[in-house]
């Protein structure tokens, strides 16, 4: 072992051996228990041996996650002897009688390792291969390695898919279980409903032999005695497990109405503390999930269908979602709480007509052009989808935010969706749920397939903040989800595009005249330029590089494992360099080529690469190949890599551009307006409390910044309230309070932190603690 990973500071390991075997489909069957703060149940993995992706060599190898170089030791789990008596724990369909749940109703206090009596092992990176052979070399048994953390794994077994009635129609050899799975996965896209149905039936089939498994800090390792290759390894396995209350993939908290809820927080470790999975982005899969919770809760999830609850006995409900577009497991999202669906006070007839105009069906599966991705029922091949400007959408939030949602958010969704369609064309996803998440959410928004999380902070400040953030998250449907980065260190391919497109979408959503749109976008460019300057002055140089792996970008070890540089550094979550430098690069290209030319190309790029993973060169090479030489002087992939993607600090082309530009007229007006308000706030005058509260609600963050800057002690209670209620934006205000070096402001910051730290996102809490102490 060269070193141990510091779980709070270092690189994030992706240990799944995706070069040898891939998960193609997940079936989750879960119960959410708020009393014990545990999600428990089973997950069935349908696997495909071999790798359809071309192997890439790399000097990065993942070491055996153990304290020594001895062979990994595997143990059979101790069987639980508790009979199943809880009828809500699993569905009433076949095959679940041999599953048991231990300790339901109490918080999980078992050790950090997944097995009952295994000692926790440390994970690390070295130049050696996995000491337990994960491939097909020699006589050692094949080892399936899954990314897994903060889970208690209770049992792993092979699933007897041959026992499913009617399964024989998929194969001429009905006794060969792996062949059945292969034939099921090979069904054509227009039979997706039948495929999902048989995935569900297979997931409920009885087990046909327990498998050996072991866990360590970062992985679950599974093998079958006598199975020496990935081809021999079972292609359908069931894992019984439970999450831990302290698991980092989800957060258990209370919403703004004080009711309990749980949701995925966009953790740096992604979903490996929610279910065992293959985290590397190349492991693109589909999924379906059945989730049960008390009937008073609403379950929202990444899913193509707008799920409705099925009433179960004992006041429990069941929710079922599915996805047919293969995506990385990291994009899976779930939120369970007492959410209320927010509807407009007056329902527009146009909105109703739009939502009813498109209902996906197999009969509508018509090909338009040729797609380059693996086969799935793609919206780009459906005539009705290509012309659908506004996809069906729902808004959920705690009941106490109904007024704010109706006033601010609901009216913005149709124009923002329509604007996005006018720029990029076909919406990649058939529907959209938007959830206003609890106050401890550490970001302004997060996009996942079919669902967007928004911070309550976006509901203040009139429509500007809400509209621009909504446009940013909508843009991720194309860049970040439908088109993903093959190497997660190239975060700019997601965030840079979304930041650039949010301005374009928002200008169209507002129906601005061309000169008004240019002025608004130039003002936002001025603000981002100043933010980028601050960022590069106050962050490590190595974390300012957009393509840190350079020529090794996209490379993995022979097994498929890799690491994400700085993936566990809590400060990285709050850095905006990938957003800002990526934005300025795309803005530079659009201006150099001409916006009409650039966005025409971008639509072509989306049609070519949707449903696929890309690297920076895929975008840049196609861009330059589609642009006449006279429009791209001195532009080359190598130059862009050198000037923009592989260097720290401010890119030289951007530096020259900003020095040559005078501040735009709109920016000058804003500067004058700010100066005026500073003068006004210095004047002593009486103001009614109600008026002051209304002003505070509209400009909370800007108001608090002015309070801190001018040490306006009479309004410190407004700052305290903001830090507790708007944690998505509050972390930056903590910095302002501490930089002021004013003892009273620093005391205010520390007191607010002590009141809020238990509810804060872990990364946020770590960063704020470093500021304060």
TrEMBL record:
<comment type="similarity">
    <text>Belongs to the peptidase M1 family.</text>
</comment>
<keyword id="KW-0378">Hydrolase</keyword>
<keyword id="KW-0645">Protease</keyword>
<dbReference type="InterPro" id="IPR015211">
    <property type="entry name" value="Peptidase_M1_C"/>
</dbReference>
<dbReference type="GO" id="GO:0004177">
    <property type="term" value="F:aminopeptidase activity"/>
</dbReference>
<feature type="domain" description="Peptidase M1 leukotriene A4 hydrolase/aminopeptidase C-terminal">
    <location>
        <begin position="665"/>
        <end position="772"/>
    </location>
</feature>
<keyword id="KW-0031">Aminopeptidase</keyword>
<dbReference type="Pfam" id="PF01433">
    <property type="entry name" value="Peptidase_M1"/>
</dbReference>
<dbReference type="InterPro" id="IPR027268">
    <property type="entry name" value="Peptidase_M4/M1_CTD_sf"/>
</dbReference>
<dbReference type="Pfam" id="PF09127">
    <property type="entry name" value="Leuk-A4-hydro_C"/>
</dbReference>
<dbReference type="InterPro" id="IPR014782">
    <property type="entry name" value="Peptidase_M1_dom"/>
</dbReference>
<dbReference type="InterPro" id="IPR033577">
    <property type="entry name" value="AOPep"/>
</dbReference>
<dbReference type="InterPro" id="IPR016024">
    <property type="entry name" value="ARM-type_fold"/>
</dbReference>
<keyword id="KW-0482">Metalloprotease</keyword>
<protein>
    <submittedName>
        <fullName>Aminopeptidase O isoform X12</fullName>
    </submittedName>
</protein>
<dbReference type="InterPro" id="IPR042097">
    <property type="entry name" value="Aminopeptidase_N-like_N_sf"/>
</dbReference>
<keyword id="KW-0479">Metal-binding</keyword>
<keyword id="KW-0862">Zinc</keyword>
<dbReference type="InterPro" id="IPR038502">
    <property type="entry name" value="M1_LTA-4_hydro/amino_C_sf"/>
</dbReference>
